[in-house]
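Quiz preparation item.
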């Protein structure tokens, strides 16, 4: 087994130097107490635009017989948007016709 030494302490093994360093980190009699961070600054969140155009996009859309997965209402508004490349089918977005629910999902 090879013992590595520190050049400053000539011939003293590293383990002994680390013990000495750790032992002298805090002055004798000093009891570190945990401190609280009282001033936290959170970055401002960016405003997120509704991808589907917000509530105005759902004003003049058709409805169909699609069951809401949240409230089991039998009708839902729907609109189709091309979200992928042209060779992929259009994505159908649904919104529950029950005004108390208003759940949105896609198919």
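Solution:
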């Amino acid at each position: 087994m090879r013992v590595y030494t520190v050049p400053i302490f000539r011939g003293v093994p590293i383990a002994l130097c680390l013990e000495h360093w750790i032992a002298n980190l805090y002055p004798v009699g000093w009891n570190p107490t945990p401190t609280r961070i009282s001033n936290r600054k959170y970055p401002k969140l960016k405003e997120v635009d509704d991808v589907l155009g917000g509530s105005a996009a759902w004003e003049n859309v058709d409805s169909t017989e699609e069951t809401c997965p949240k409230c089991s209402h039998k009708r839902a508004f729907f609109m189709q948007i091309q979200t992928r490349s042209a060779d992929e089918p259009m994505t159908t977005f649904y919104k529950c016709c029950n005004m108390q629910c208003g759940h949105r999902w896609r198919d």
